[in-house]
Fold:
Amino acid sequence: MTAVTPRPRMIRGLVRGSWSVFDWVTLIVSLLLALLIVGPLAGAVWNIFSGEDGSVADSFAAVFGDGRILQILWNTFYILGIAIVIALVVGTLLAWLNERTNARVGWASDVLPVVSLLVPSTAGAIGWVILASPQVGYVNVVLSAAAEAVGLPAPDLNIFSAGGMIFVFSLYLIPQVYLVVSAAMRNIDPAMEEAARVSGRGTFAVLWTVTVPAVRPAIISGGLLAMVYGLAMFSVPLILGSRADITILTVEIVRLLTAAYPPDLVGAALLSIVLLVALLVVNGISRAVNRSGRFATIGGKNAGQNVYRLGRVRQTLARIVMFGYLVVGCVLPVLALVYVALQPFWAGSFTWQLSLTNFESVFSAGSQTATALVNSLVLAVATATICMALAVIVTYQLGRSRRLSGPLSLIMKLPGIVPHVIVAIAVLSVFAGPPFNLGSTITILLVAYVILYITQASVSAESASLQIGSDLTNASRVAGRGPGSTLRLISLPLMAPGLAAGWVFVFVLVMGDITASVILAGTNNPVVGFTMLSLFQNGTYSTLSAFAAIITLVSMVVVLSALAWVARSRRKLTR
Structure:
């Protein structure tokens, strides 16, 4: 009898088919992506803490011995914390009204809760500066005239305040929560809610005790996404906080890197650790809740479209809330931008002497604004597409490799809390010179954007994946389909709404990016965010408003097209 040599354990696994070629390809891609994220950052951290960029002890004493630091930390956590809470409440409520009640108003209901995404954060912040600046803001002008007409004292809104910052932050964090939670609510089995109503529970009791617990992981994921997005948002605290003398952590980190001389890289890194700890805590809570498994998933049966029918009064109030958010989040700031863009200068008064001169200057041949618009549009589409494709692959590996899931998930979240300027410096040091020689090119911006915004993409992909029950994927594999075919034919169509949400997030973030552009953009590769900030600092409000209005129009076309594609895909699935 011929002796049979036992196969190594890994080869035996491959023969049994436990690891297919697709599994190995996705593993290699995931590890290469992790290396792309960790490699430049590790090099930058080594240079900082090895003493080459200054003494760690001296920077620690200078940063944490500064009497301002406690106030900066307090400003960061209470402003961003309140904004996240508001976003969770309003975003979840809007998702419930749109998906689980009859308050929908056709296709408009899919657009209303995400309207603030149509206006990049830099443009939105400037729009609200025009609207609510003390005395000269157009809202204050109108309120003053109305109060004077009825003999009442005139209120004076001040966007340059903590309340103003929380307000604008909330407008941009609500869509982060809504898009994730609405995709989960769409998959709830209505039988659970019907049973609760039959037992005598009221509308909001059902919402609080049945609907919200069913989508709890999505709500937590939305909160995590809002936190990451809020920490990455630099334009709002810079534009509003600088006039209000309110500094938050991200602005202080950028100040240490760009305004201090010499740049305090070590101090900026030490402050970044505070953000890292906060994200680790929130991410740990999110993973613990997700492991509990007590949430709604897409099963083998269609969940149906049964919705709770609100009475006429409640339905009207719900629609007023939805359209009110449309007016505040999009209509008012866009109208303000367009109106100022049609004037030679902003004086805080109403006039009919309007012209298109500022729009013509934006598109003039060879202008930096025209070049920046084209560059940012190409980069935004490319980055969003690449990030979501990579996020799907990584999410598949998170479910496939238990040993890698923890470290890989953490690496995907890492760019969300590392200051963008540090990431840009790390990318510049690795890719600008030999052997890549990508300095002052569009490609180096693309690499940096993929690293920066893979966090938003991975959070959206993980949340979308959690809503898919194992029965569908198991049935596909029992039927003889491989993991690649199962992912393409079963998982991806069901994940489409969540993936589209992530794509929209990344697109909008790239269109409005400022901090990375400070380091990587130059005369040969200008982008939108840095160009808008330069116009704002120079005080050219009319040209800035024209440029911001055009960016908003472009964002509207792209985002609405993405949402229309999702709606069409959803209709195909329900046929």
